[in-house]
Amino acid sequence: MRGSYPVAGLMGGLAQLARRACVALALVLLGAQAYLRPPGAFRTSAVTVAVVLTLFGLKAVWAGASARLGINRCYLYTGGLVLTNIFGMVREAVAWDDVREVNALTNRSVLLAFHRIEIVRSRSATATFLALGLQPALVEALMGEVARNAPGRGARPPGR
Fold first, then answer.
1. Distance between CA atoms of 160 and 153, rounded to whole angstroms?
2. Helix (H) or strand (E) holding 131
3. What is the mean pLDDT of each run of 10 residues along the chain (160 residues)?
4. Model pTM?
């Protein structure tokens, strides 16, 4: 095995959007509390900070649990790759000799940062998944594996 990387689907992208929107809203609320200084501002600010810390804690717990249990992972092998679902079971298995084209779309914004990777296969349906973050390690590793194992198959790195 060459590597194990976290992946996400639509719900993972929406969870990222919701978490970042809550953090932005909390920052606006804390700024308004500091500027206006209403009665009970300390209590409200403490609750707001606790909610934000809880969101980051839940993210860390989910990342650790998903890595340990094999949930929503992309495993790169010398012969291909395997994608698992929310239950840790195999969702897609792609052999490198079946890869016809690899497309990657990048979105880098304040509320959403992901790479949408689409693996077009010759004999099966297209495999699509998200790699969350500005520069996830999966994108570089996947493009390297495609270049090494499926040369001339039309791999297009993100942003080109």
1. 16
2. strand 127-132
3. 92 94 96 94 95 96 94 94 95 93 93 95 93 94 88 59
4. 0.84
